[in-house]
Structure formats: C-alpha cells, structure tokens
Design goal:
This protein is of the alpha/beta class and 585 residues long. The chain contains 16 helices and 13 strands. The protein has a five-stranded antiparallel sheet, covered by helices on one side. It has a five-stranded parallel sheet with strand order 7-11-12-3-13, with helices on both faces. The chain has a three-stranded antiparallel sheet with strand order 8-9-10.
Length: 585
C-alpha cells in the first residue's frame, strides 16, 4: 500500500502472505491503520473529518491479487474520487464510492449466481461488504462471546447476520431454491388474478349501481348476464317490473339490522366477561399451587387452603365452554346476515330517488356496454392460491431456520481444538481444560461461543449420570482468546467452501491488551494452529499491537514498527506540532 501526500511525497507499506505484524506505541495510529484497511476495501468512513489526514494525505493505493489477477485500488481524500484498475493499465476515469464498491464486489464474489441465491434466501441485499464482519476484530468489543463479531455492534451488520448464518448452516438449500421459484410463480399468478378480480368487482359494482337507477330488483353477480339483459328488455318495453313477495321495505330492514347488531354486541360483551372470569380463575389456580407447595412442608395451614380450593372448583364448573363454541357458530351466521342486510339497505336507497329518462337511458347504455366485457369471479382461485402461498412461506421459514447439526458440531470442535492448543503455554487455558468434558459450543441463535463442562448428577433412580452445563468464566483474557478462535473457525469454513464473497484476510487490533505476559503467548499458539488447517497462502492476517511479536509467540512473515526515523506513526506525513511551532503558525 502506497500513501501519497499533498506535496508529492509517498510512502509504501509492504505486506506478505501469511502474518503481518505492526508494532506501535500509544497514539502511533495502530487503530487508524486497522480502520484504514477497511476504508481501502470500501467503508464509508470520511477521512476528511479526522485531523491527522487533513492537508497531509492526498490518496492511497493498494495492490491486491485475486485469482492470479492484480488490481490497484485507489482512494483519495475526497470520498467521491476513487479509482480501480488492473495493475498493467493506467488509472481510468474517477468513480464514486458506490461504483467503487460494485467493482470490488465483482472481484470478491466468485459466483454472482450464488450471491443472487444468497440474496433470495436471506431476502437481504448482501455484498462483500456485509461479509467484512468476519474480517475485523477490533479493540472495541474484545472479550465478547455473545454476538461475538465486532462489527455486529453496528445495526447495519447485525440485522444481516442471522440470515447469513441461516444460509451458512443450512442443508436444505436445493429444496429452498425450488420452493422460492414456486413461490415467485404463485405470487405472479396472484398478481394477475388480483387484476382480474379488481376488474370483475369494478364492473359488477358499476352494473348494479346503474340497475338501481332503473328501479330493478335484479342483482348482477357476474354470472347472470342473461337475466340482466332480459330485465333491460322489459324496461325498454316499459313493462312493469315484477316484485318479489318477499321484498321488505327499508324500515323492516333497518329494524332487523339493529336487532342483529344488538345480539352481536351482547354476545361479544359476554365473551369478554367470560374471558376475564377465566383469567381470574387461572390466577387463583396458580395461587393455590403455590400454597400447596408451602403446605407440603408445613401442613398446619391446611384449613385455610381448603375453602379456596372449593371456591375455585365451583367457579370452574360455572363456565361451560362448549356453550361458547355453539354460540361462536351462531354469531358468525348473524354477522353474515348483518352484512347481507346492509347490502339490501343500500340497494333500497335508489327507491327514494327520482331519475330522469335521460339518466335511465344512459344507465341502460352503460349496463349493456359493461355486460359485453369478459369477466369472471376469481374469489375461489384467489383463496386457494393465497392458501398455497401461506403454506409455502411456512415451509420455507421452517427450512431456512433448520440447522446443519453436523456442520455446527464440526465448527465447535475446531474452535475447541484451537483453544486447547494453548495448553501448557497459558495458565488460563490449563485451568479450563482440567474441567471434565470442557468444550466450546457454538450456538447459532445469538451467535454465541459458550464454554461447557460435564457435571455428575443423580436421577430419580439414584443413578449417577453426566450432564453438560454452561461453564461461566469471567476472565477477559479467556473470552478474548475464545473470540479469536471463533473468528478463525468461521474463516476456515468460509474460505474452504470457496463460494462466499469474502476477502481472505483477518485484521486484529491490540488483542494483547487483556493478557498478562505469561498468557499472551496463547495468541500466537492459536494463530499458528489455525494456519496449520487453513494455510498461510489462503489467509492473510494483519495485527496491530504495542507488544513485540515474540511476546505473543508469533513468527510473522512481515513485521515493522510504525514509529521510526522517517515517521511518527501510521500516517507518514503527519506529526504533532510543538507549542512553539503552533504559536509561530
């Protein structure tokens, strides 16, 4: 990575495959270097807001090699001015941050079709930027073993973690894919049917509205067009419309509507009261259970509890729930009748209005035009297709939340083996592995790394059995080491499967902080053990710390001090002015 100043100076940081270690004292820019690597990979941080970049850093270029192709990434002091090109070509046109990220996404997304499948599975817009949560372990949340990824303290990452974990640990991907295709097809059919249904409802409404103006008692349902045409013919011939003997006047209809509404209201109030009685009775039963537990230890107060028990039993017998089941069916019928009466009242509105012959002629013309339209009632099809969609969504949800137990077990075993590899080196690890059955169990729900041990318990037959229980350890050093193992465990899975849009790096900031000198060597042992499985050619690690790498038992492929004769920290063009210089300025 080469950094350029505003006065045409430049400074280059060399990196190597494997482990890169950068030592620096306090205020030498270790954390800034950590964040700057994320900035080069497309983070939205605005470096103009930081005083140590102002008027010093003009731009920075980083050379990366992906699948034997070398790219040059360039970001400038102005976030809207970026460049991305092949190593053997000159910088092309300026690109904004959005396009810069899109080009990086095309580089790291090995299979764009798979990325599309991940987006469909998770129903989230995911890119390589989302997967950087697996790449950065900062000082901010060191020691977190619940929701242990550092970046997940940011809501834009935390909301996407659960669907990503569901995808990583799911063994039903093919079935989910076909169900999603079927769901898309059904949703398109539903959309088409809703359009047809809207047209059907509109035409029926318009026909019936105009029929009312003619004083006819025929109602258009979409399937009785011939009856409507016959009725129109009678009206044109000025024949007196035949009235049904069962027709009721509007006063009768309103009385019936009011009576039914009152019955429904009384029923709903009684149901509400019954539920309250039931809730109160449930609370009494809970109280009795607690009292009976007390009586099991001291039977002196039994005479106080017996009257309460009798009262609860009497109240329980006064409520007949079968009666409400019958009433529920009755009330549903009453509600249907109320809707029918409301419709009938609306139909009668036109009987009390006068329409001119011109208005009636216009209504006849409109009815004839609407009857010529080809419509159909889709209510049955809509109901059926909505039912299918609901069933598929439920099945999809169940499949998406089902876990590959073997894969989670393998991850837990690898994390445990990394942690145990520091035995004999770290006293905190030695203390833990002395516990019977010690292991670190990964739980997908909550993204938890939970230490567990085995304890002996006797069952009801007095037979001694071993049971796994959570092992709570309060040491920050223990938690941080477990957290590091968790990061390395996930990177092993993601890199081995070689299909996720992930940058093959791990960036760690000041991890030695919670460790004393005797235990800090466990960090190097865990990293070396992970490299045996992952391979230094497959994972590049960047570490920033204030300790010598030998203190952490590390053998980096590249190491340097951020403070030297040429510069005072990470940004080689920045230095802190003395008080005399500030007064002169």
């Amino acid at each position: 990575m080469t950094m350029y100043s505003f006065d045409e100076k430049k400074y280059t940081y060399q990196f190597s495959s494997g482990l890169n270690y950068f030592k620096g004292k306090n205020s030498s820019g270790k954390t800034e270097f950590y964040k700057f690597l994320d900035f080069m990979f497309g983070s939205s941080e605005d470096i103009r807001k930081k005083p140590w970049y102002r008027d010093t850093l003009k731009k920075a270029s980083m050379e990366i090699q992906v699948d034997n192709i070398i790219y040059i990434l360039t970001r400038s002091y102005d976030p809207s001015q970026n460049y991305l090109s092949y190593a053997d070509e000159e910088e092309r046109e300026i690109i904004d941050q959005r396009e810069y990220r899109e080009k990086l996404n095309s580089i790291f997304a090995k299979d764009m079709e798979l990325l599309k499948n991940i987006r469909e599975f998770t129903e989230e817009e995911l890119t390589f930027r989302t997967f950087t949560m697996f790449n950065f372990l900062g000082e901010k949340r060191q020691g977190a073993i619940h929701d242990f990824f550092d970046k997940c303290s940011d809501i834009k990452y935390s909301v996407k973690l659960v669907p990503i974990l569901n995808f990583i640990f799911n063994n039903n991907l093919e079935k989910i894919y076909w169900l999603q295709r079927e769901l898309e097809q059904l949703q398109q059919e539903l959309k088409d049917l809703e359009v047809t249904s809207s047209r059907y409802d509109f035409i029926c409404t318009q026909v019936n509205r105009n029929i009312q103006k003619l004083g006819s008692n025929v109602w258009y349902t979409g399937r009785n067009a011939d009856d409507i045409r016959k009725n129109l013919k009678e009206i044109k011939n000025m024949e007196e419309p035949k009235k049904k003997g069962s027709d009721r006047n509007i006063a009768d209809l309103e009385v019936m509507y009011s009576n039914i509404s009152e019955q429904i209201k009384i029923y709903e109030n009684s149901i509400s009261d019954a539920k309250q009685f039931e809730n109160d009775n449930s609370n009494r039963k809970m109280l009795l259970e607690n009292l009976e537990q007390l009586l099991a230890e001291n039977n002196v107060f039994a005479y106080l509890v017996e009257p309460l028990k009798q009262l609860v039993n009497e109240l329980d017998n006064t409520i007949s729930f079968s009666q409400y089941t019958i009433n529920d069916k009755t009330i549903a019928e009453l509600k249907r009748q109320r809707i029918a009466l409301k419709t009938a009242i609306k139909r009668n509105d036109s009987r009390f209005q006068c329409y001119t012959m011109e208005e009636k002629a216009k209504s006849i013309a409109l009815i004839e035009e609407y009857l010529s339209a080809d419509i159909r009632d889709c209510s049955g099809d809509l109901k059926e297709i909505k039912k299918k969609i609901r069933e598929i969504k439920e099945e999809l949800k169940a499949l998406q939340n089902s876990d590959d137990i073997a894969k989670i077990r393998g991850l837990s075993q690898f994390i445990t083996s990394l942690y145990k590899s520091a035995s004999g080196i770290s006293s905190v690890v030695d203390d833990d592995i002395l516990q019977e059955g010690f292991k670190i169990q990964y739980f997908k729900r909550g993204n938890i790394l939970q230490p567990m041990v085995q304890v002996k318990e006797k069952d009801e037959n007095d037979i001694e059995q071993k049971k796994e229980v959570n092992y709570y350890i309060g040491s920050m050093a223990r938690h941080t080491l477990i957290q590091l193992c968790g990061y390395l465990g996930f990177l092993k899975i993601l890199l081995a499967e070689d299909k996720y849009p992930i940058i093959p790096i791990l960036v760690i900031d000041h991890i030695s902080k919670p460790f004393d000198t005797s235990n800090s060597r466990a960090i190097g042992q865990v990293i070396n053990k992970a490299y045996e499985e992952i391979g230094k050619e497959n994972l590049q690690i960047f570490m920033f710390d204030d300790e010598e790498h030998t203190t952490l038992a590390l053998q980096p492929e590249h190491s340097e001090n951020l403070v030297n004769d040429e510069k005072s920290g990470f940004n080689p063009f920045y230095y802190l002015a003395s008080e005399n210089e500030e007064e002169t300025d």
